[in-house]
Amino acid sequence: MSDDDDFMQESDPEQYDFEYEDDDDQETGDVDIENKYYNAKQIKIDNPQEAIEEFLGLPALEEEKGDCWNTDQGTIRRHATSDGILEVTDQSQAIEHYRELLTYVKSAVTRNYSEKSINNMLDFIEKGADDSSAYQCMEKFYSLTLESFQSSNNERLWLKTNIKLARLWLDKKDYERLSKKLRELHKACQLEDGSDDPSKGTYSLEIYALEIQMYADTKNNKRLKALYQRALRVRSAVPHPKILGTIRECGGKMHMTEENWKEAQIDFFESFRNFDEAGSLQRIQVLKYLVLTTMLMKSDINPFDSQETKPYKNDPRISVMTDLVDAYQRDDIHRYESILQSNKDLLEDPFIAENIDEVTRNIRMNAVMKLVTPYKRFTLDFIGKQLKISLTEVEDIIGFLIVDNKLKGRIDQERGIVAVQAISDHERVDSLALWAKASRGFWHAVLNDAEGYRTEESNAMMSLVGGPLGPGPTSDPHPIRIGNKASNGLGKLHKLAGRKR
């Protein structure tokens, strides 16, 4: 008998008491739950009410918390398909269902799965929070979520959910709650000495971005500037480019309020680049800000010449700004005004509306200077008709030109006339001012630096400048030498006197 035969004989089934479990019941239970779940999903659109009943029947079929078949959004929302609007019909019931779902987070499902499911549900309910009742319900959802994560010591999900809630307060402009939440988040991301925890650098930068947005919205530039500079010094983070785009955008707006056009241009370009990398639609709006800044800088460089911005030059969403910068750089005031008049929706952005006036004033000032250069006198009505603007706007432009010393003139408001000072008058006035200054310098040198003059010479010099010399030496009968400073001053005086003759 071979060894194999011996082995087969020794392997008598009776020697091994195997007990096979009957898994039919368990498999049947899982199949029933799975079938019920997918059936509910299939009929959710056509028959939402029946789908909800199916979803609500899932937990009762589970003997143990498993893959959480009932974590579908249908258990929280009722679908009103008649008008296509999602509405909360029973908030207390929705809250209770959500409370039950959170019990699965502790043991039944993985962190990644629970995080994704909860984020989807929170995003879903935020879309419908358009009244005070739904808003309160949404707050309860966030409260339950944070309690669940805190009790399970899941700090990462606790931070992410709190940041999500802070972003919601920012969108709602609830700055009081937002400030409290940001203080709580900053504390959670700091070491015992109050410095930022390097291991939480990404969260810290995201919190900074929210706080910077709050200060930008509330026009608190002092706090914004300090926080902006602090955020740029964070080196331990690997943030999402959208976060960096937000910080840079707010920095650009801050520089714009300070009329620091160059720094604003740098920040807006960096913001655009980050938003573009993140695939965010905000890149279009920031690109408009970049074009606006280029015009305020009075730069001849086209903002669409760079490799990053060139693909958007012919984008219909940015074409209005493209046409504006083209008209501005060519000093085509009529084309510029026409574009603004036919695209008033551009001014729906508060930031553009706030800063476009500066651009408009600049191009109008250039147009006025071109018009009035040949004239010594012109009317406000003439400028208004040429530029097709009101007399009030014309007067404002002339006023800016006079204040900036670009136009030497005076406005006669009663007659509506502007008298321009002739160039020859300028030279005469400047020469007289120089004459008086040289005279004062000469006599200051004579009386303070030189040893003095005899009385006869003093009288002669007094007659030359047409005024008394004041107290001076009169008793010395001997002629004396004139100091270097006095002689230099006298030379200038004679030179000016000769020029005037």
Automatic annotation (TrEMBL):
Keyword check for Cell wall biogenesis/degradation: no
GO terms under cellular component: COP9 signalosome; cytoplasm
Entry keyword annotation includes Nucleus: yes
Transmembrane segments: none
Chain segments carrying region Disordered: 1-29
InterPro entries hit by this protein: 26S_Proteasome/COP9_Components, PCI_dom, WH_DNA-bd_sf
Cellular compartment(s): Cytoplasm; Nucleus
PROSITE patterns assigned: PCI
Main subcellular location: cytoplasm
Family the entry assigns: Belongs to the CSN2 family.
PANTHER family with a match to the protein in the record: 26S PROTEASOME NON-ATPASE REGULATORY SUBUNIT 11/COP9 SIGNALOSOME COMPLEX SUBUNIT 2 (PTHR10678)
Protein's recorded name: COP9 signalosome complex subunit 2
